[in-house]
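Submission sheet (multi-component)
Chains listed below:
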Amino acid sequence: MARMALEGIKVVDFSWVFAGPLITAYLGDYGAQVIKVESHSRLDLTRVSAPYKDGISGVNRSGSFPVANNSKYGITINLKHPQASALVRRLITWADIVVENFGTGAMERLGLGYEELKKMNPQIIMLSATIQGQTGPRSTFAGYGWNTVALTGIGNLTGWPDRSPVGTLQAYPDSVVPWFGVVALLSALDYRRRTGKGQYIDISQYETTSHILAPLLLNYMSNNRVATRAGNRSPYAAPHGVYRCQGDDRWCAITVFTETEWQAFCRVLGSPSWTKNEKFASLKGRRKNEDELNRLVEQWTINYTPEDVMARMQQAGVPAGIVKTNKEIFEDPQLEHRDYFQRVEHSEIGQIYQQAWPIEMSESKANVRPAPSLGEHNEYVATKILGLSDREFVDYLGAGVFE
Amino acid sequence: MLEPYRTLDLTDEKGIFCGKILADLGAEVIQLERPDGNPARSIPPFLKDTAGPGKGIFWLAFSAGKKSITLNLETGAGRDIFKRLAGTADFVIESFRPGYLESLGLGYKALTKTNPRLTMASITPFGQTGPYKDYKGGDLVASAMGGMVYCTGEPDRAPVRISIDQAYCQASLHAAVGLLLGLHNRTVTGQGQHVDVSMQASMVRTLHTQLPHWEYSRHITQRSGVWRSRGGVSTREIWPCKGGFVDWMFLGGAAGTQQMQNMVKWMGNEGMAGSLSTEVQNWATLDLTRVSPEKVRSWEKIIGDFFLMHTKEELYEEALKRRIPLTPLNDIADVAKDEQLATRDFWVDIDQAESGTSLRYPGSFFLSSEEKCTPKVRRRAPLIGEHNAEIYTGELGLSQEELNSLRRQGVI
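Outcome: structure written.
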């Protein structure tokens, strides 16, 4: 097998739920050795969340945990055990990168703050991801990803203008923050290679996520305009919507950005007379009469399946796409072509899918391996990676450190 | 942090954020624009509500810190210049339709003949190969095909997207990851590589547990408005309050114990806990799956009535004191005025001299203990071809006469 991009990079992962674990999963899939540190007394919440394999609950049976923990070694350490610190010191000395997303101050209380880690390993790169950052009056706020949805404005910006905001089903910042985290760590690794210096990275999920809303923030700063939720409308395209099609709750997105696309769109519909109406002749006119426009578009789409609408539009050069369910994502031919879902053998629940990534590297392919069972690699990590003797491992085991 | 690295940025709106990320991290990012300017410049709204090629807010937001040169790749001279520049670059980012650069003789393989160290990211709606590779798509199409739209919104209306383009930012972030993975690999192998980024797959990566819900339970995730189903129980996430909305999740069991006790105590202090204080003896052992949905709704009614007595600001302040994970549903103006962001000096004012104004930007996407590693917006977005002289004359050594000639031929 060809060399992996991050071969030789060593990561200790104290993080849990999604925002932190997705960072280290990305690194692991591209070749870093990632050791996820868990404990029996404080289980990762995704280990105890539905859905479970065969509907039977269990810490190694949840489908949520594998979402963000591919390609990691799993060990359990009771960090509060008096003998744990010597073991943790070996982990830190071994590592290039430490990632955590506990509440502010938790790592310091465990004696694992950045200053302490730096004493053990002067070149260490440490990343902390909290909701509101390590400093400031709200730094101690302990919350969940959905709190970031609300703070950033994303919650308010999702839904219909005449109804309550609905927010996103999943905590959307959990799919933004980790990618910034990976960018930060890869940049820090390169900086360290050139300068010999490690660093501490303080990620505020609130701040990081604000970057993807930058145009709205600048529009407020410049024009004092406060963006509102707009259903599916766009200021620079019309039609721009999700239209009901034939079938039960089946929909197709259609978007028309340019004059060429509008002409093509009209031809696909068979150029009914309304498409020649002056009020729909320009983007400005279509935006002004968008309610009526959308009704007319839907009178056409309702006669076809979303597959049919997409094919007809795309053949004519109009951007359109089926509104796919989670089931349909598994059946998507394009994702299949990209090997997006990778079948792996999980140590307890057998064959499962792990997701790959939205990038395909021509040389440094990802190698997606299964998420670990709780404590699955205690012995392997202790003896093969950290170099403990069998005797030392048994001593730690007997003392209850690996719990 | 990325000061040694040069990026040539050929993207339109689909990939423009990638170069911004690299520029904030210190890389030199040169946006190559058509002589009439990048089409992303004309995405509304506009600075001071006045349309113009340098005024599009989307452009200003995501091109700040870059340089700009103009170059027409559809001319032979333009292609020659591009090849010379590619020889000096570490990264190229592009978002043309698959095959377009190859048709100009500027595909990844061609560029690496002179610069094998080059890493190039190509951002498209669906990817460089595969059955949908020639399909067109913007944010809404990628979000729909990526599964995020179907389960967002309310059951009695059409599915919705987040009301601002997301797929472009998502794909741009993954492209940045790919380029940096390529950079890391290059330090060992000396060779660059090509990164194929799919906007659709980028949106699939936002689904998290919805995929195992199908894989493990054969459950199709439905739109549920302000309600969230967790562990088989549907509870409310978004609540109206006086003059706005707050975000707070009604949880039972171990995860919810502390916050529920605190919440009921707070309501009790204001005489509004109703039956909540007597009906639940121990929140830690409360298994919501064993409580009837009607009962859960009746508790939510009590809590909802309490929230309606207070503004989102009042609720947030008190929740902070009581360690309850409740947050206001901010609007953009609330974000701009947020005390926490201000205390951390999040905002940065960038002078826009040509428009006679300055513009406030989101600042660092992380803070580093090494001050020079903290990303920041370095300067305003470039004017069209602002750095032509610097690059073409200063670096490539073209004479004024040659520049004029290229200009006449429509190359720059």
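Remark: The longest helix of chain A spans residues 177-195.
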